[in-house]
Amino acid sequence: MAATLTGTVALARFALRRDRVRIAVWVAAVAALVLVTAASTKGIYPTQADLDQAAAVAQDNPAVLAFNGPAIALDTMGGQITFQVGSFGLLVVGLMALLMTSRLTRAEEESGRMELVRSMAVGRQAPLASALIVVGAMAATVGVLTTVGLITQDLPVAGSVALGASFAALGLFFTGVAAVTAQVTENPRVASGIAGGMLGLSFAVRAAGDIGDGTLSWFSPLGVAQKARPFGDEVWWPLLLLVALAVAFAAGGAALAAHRDFGGGLVAPRPGRPEASASLGRPLGLAVRLQRGSVLWWALAVLLLGVTYGSIANSIEDFVADNQTIADFVAASGGASLTDSYLATSLLILSLTAAGAALQTALRLRTEEVGGRAEPVLSTPTSRWAWMGSHVAVSLVGSALIVLAGGLGIGATYGIVIGDLGQVPRLMAASLAYVPAVWVLAAIAIALFGWAPRASVAAWALLAGAFVIAMLGTILDLPDWVLGLSPFHHAPQVPAAAVSVLPIAVLLAITVVTTAAGFAGFRRREVG
Amino acid sequence: MDPVIDVGGLVKAFGSARALDGLDLQVGAGEVHGFLGPNGSGKTTTIRVVLGMLRADEGRVRLLGGDPWRDAVDLHRRLAYVPGDVSLWPKLSGGETIDLFGRLRGDLDRSRRDELLDRFELDPTKRARTYSKGNRQKVALVAALASSAELLILDEPTSGLDPLMEAVFQDCITEANDEGRTVLLSSHILAEVEALCDRVSIIRAGRTVQSGTLTELRRQTHTTVAAETDRPVSGLDRIDGVRVLAATDGHVNLQVEPARLDGVMQALAAAGLRSLVSTPPTLEELFLRNYGDEPAGEAAHHDAAGAAAER
Questions:
Q1: Confidence of residue B295 (pLDDT cuts 50, 70, 90)
Q2: Can you tell me the mean pLDDT for B93-116?
Q3: What's B289's domain CATH number?
Q4: Which of the two ends of chain B, N or C, has the fewest CB atoms closer than 10 A to its terminal CB?
């Protein structure tokens, strides 16, 4: 073994030991997502006739294609399962790969722990190599578990292997991507952010591609993974292409790791201001300064997602005009226009994404506390109320602005396509209907911070649950009370439904009470 | 005058571990008070209770005449704090951080800030991410010293400073003290403690084992005496608090409590004293004795010489 790789195996074993719970939860969650979807899809479409009808409804529906992926063999059980879980599952695998890779590489380096490790007989490339081994193994395990699980549910072997392999290949690809981004910047959050941005973009590109003739999907790693066509006429080489690209990225990351300074990035930090600006002098000024960057990046990401969704909204009307079955289906399902249903679903997804920003900014409270940066501030005449309130304000206002950015994006492109810029204010106003649901999640995170700070990370599990309920609630055939656990289930589905005041008022009341409880908890507890 | 910090019988437990176990600490107005103890003895925990970050389980905690848990904000107007492990926001520059703390405290003195930056040779444009441990400490020190707070609470503030900066730090503390400010200084650097502190408190395992001026502490421990005499010395065993380490044909080595030194001298003189070396306890001996495994409070009362003789 090359000297620069010395210690790789020991580090990999250490990572497996230290993160065993986190690793197990990721892998099990992805596998369970696929298998539960498979089981309930079988329950919902028990006969071939059911499958045929589902295929007819979805076949050319751009709204569904944009969220679910290309329509391949939808009249088979395997094809329908792939369609239901595919894009979402691939997103989750990509997220798993890039977050874990950043965590094991750049985050360790920034924390200073890696310096101690590297001072021992550990090679320059060993930390990255060990992360590649661990995360690569996670992706492979996800693939194997998925494949085996699908086969045990009596699905064709070739298709099961293709779906499992596409998950593994995409996981490997984003492991490679994150291996590069972790070398570029000194900040682990920026490293994850760049890789996450690529993941989001590749989802958007394949959405556009799948609505069209599919050519554009070739420019998206997610799209390429879906070109394996599980349960259709399986094609294997796109997966080999992804794996080859993953290896190339990983090699690139390793080359960068071998040549850069420890702790340094490729982008040198600029010198800072010698004096603080006028705004940086009160707790709110500090919170805004610390969080504005991430709020802006989230807003930009959600805006771009909205732009993508908005640009294809109009093709839905054309599609309905061409398809009598769908027209009947829409008429039967309550009369809201299919475009408005599509826009409502888009706004729901955008606001779920914005809820991620709400959680991240609210949980900054915990990051500051654990990092020892809360104590110096609280040892000045800054009250606990003021310190906590500043970050809570950033979280609530910031997440509302991010939701609005999504509405702006959808409204702008949809408005341009149909030549009616009145859609911009209409959809921005509509997006506000989802803000109270976003705030409820933020409020839960705030309450956890106040009362059970060590458990505050559990707020992310609630967001994951809300995502599953929103994306898969129907296909999983979840009972109403489970659906009702998600605040987003209660948000009026504007513009497909009218604005109803009661649920909004109730969600706002929950936000206020829960947030207040968080403040009360933090004032009572110890800091640190 | 009321003490600035008045802690009595303080108990703080984390789960089953008692971090503080009946700790006492009195810091009088205008003094520089050294706060010493081995690693993990509870210095930082005490400071965090005094700041109102942690709540006392039992005991009395008064800070500047108030209750630090209840009146934190008002009391914090009157103090400045330098944490032992200075964590800063990686993206903010040193200058921005100092200004931020000054404004949060409400008394940023710009000329003083610039003067301190100069004296500590700190580049305010560098981002905190790129600062070394010593430079992060300088940021926190400049922010604290630039304030007009009447109390400075410093938790091992110089552990990362070079000797040149250590001297600057000592000058700054002396100046602050001349202005009438009170300083609580937790430190492991004995020369610094000796140079700066009027009084010290030594804690071990969450309990105060010694408190007083350095002179008082010295007085409570033994002096080492080496003498040469014409005749064998007699009568030493009749004096309390003397421990003879070696006595061979005209040479005698012994340890004695300062209060008994007079009796020893008479016995030595009676034996025809030819030469005499008397060594007062060094600070190191003082601290090592208090930091060690044996309960030092008991050792001081019953067997002053014994505990030290083992070292």
A1: very low
A2: 91
A3: 3.30.70.250
A4: N
If asked whether residues B142 and B85 sit together in one domain, one would say yes
Q: Quick: pLDDT tens for A331-367.
A: 555 556 778 888 998 999 999 999 999 999 999 999 9
Q: Which of B54, B104, B130 sits opposite A380 (nearest CB)?
A: B104
Q: Which residues of A touch B (CB under 8 A)?
A: 186-187, 269, 271-277, 280-283, 286, 289-290, 293, 371-373, 375-384, 526-528
Spans of all domains in chain A? 8-263, 284-528
Same domain, B108 and B10: yes
Q: Which residues on B lie below 8 Å from A273 (Cβ)?
A: 93, 95-96, 125
Instruction: Say which residues have a Cβ less than 8 Å from residue A365's Cβ, sequence separation at least 6.
Output: A374, A388, A391, A392, A446, A449
CA distances from A464 to A6, A95, A194, A359, B120 (A): 38, 12, 21, 12, 50
Task: Give mean pLDDT, residues A471-496.
Answer: 88
For A128-154, what is the mean pLDDT? 96
Backbone phi, psi, residue B4, to 5° = -75, -40
Burial tier of A481 (Cβ tally within 10 Å: 0-12, 13-18, 19+): exposed
**Domain around B119:** 5-216
B26 with B145, same domain: the answer is: yes
ipTM: 0.79
What is the Cα–Cα distance from A489 to B160, expressed in whole angstroms?
55
- CA dist B218 and A334 (Å) reads 91
Non-local CB neighbours of A500 within 8 Å, separated by 6+ positions: A492
- Any A CB within 8 A of B15 CB: no
Convert the pLDDT of each residue in A437-466 to its tens digit.
999 999 999 999 999 999 998 999 999 999
pLDDT above 70 coverage of chain B, percent: 93
Q: For residue B58, list its beta bridge partners.
A: B11
The pLDDT score that the predictor gives to residue A260 is 82
Mean pLDDT value across residues A260-278: 79
Q: Quick one: tokens of A477? A: 């055939």
The CA distance from A515 to A492, in Å, is 22
Under 8 Å between Cβ of B128 and B92: yes
CA–CA gap between residue B61 and residue B25 (Å, rounded): 9
| B232/B210 same-domain check | no
Backbone dihedral region of B32: left (phi > 0), alpha (psi from -120 to 50 degrees) or beta? beta
Same domain? For B189 and B106 the reply is yes
- Number of structural domains (chain B) is 2
Whether the pTM exceeds 0.90: the reply is: no
- Could you tell me which residues come within 8 angstroms of residue A128 by beta carbon, excluding any fewer than 6 positions away? A105, A179, A182, A183, A253, A254, A257
Residues B60, B205: one domain? yes
- Phi then psi for residue B223, to 5 deg, are -110, 140
pLDDT tens-digit readout, A393-432 = 999 999 999 999 999 999 999 998 888 999 999 999 999 9
Single out the residue in B216, B241, B271 at which a domain terminates: B216
Mean pLDDT along residues A8-24: 92
Residue B156 and residue B236 in one domain:
no
Q: What is the DSSP letter of B131?
A: -
Return the CATH number at B75.
3.40.50.300
**CB contacts, 8 Å: B53 with chain A:** 375, 378-379, 526-528
Three-class secondary structure assignment of A227-242: CCCCCCCCCCHHHHHH
Q: Does any CB of chain A come closer than 8 Å to the CB of residue B154? A: no
**Does one domain contain both B197 and B235?**
no
Domain boundary among B176, B195, B216: B216
Interface contact A373-B93, CB threshold 8 A: no
**Contact call for A276 and B51, based on CB within 8 A:** no
Q: How confident is the model at residue A113, as a pLDDT?
A: 81
- CA A106 from chain centre, in angstroms, equals 20
How many whole angstroms separate alpha carbon A80 and alpha carbon A38?
9
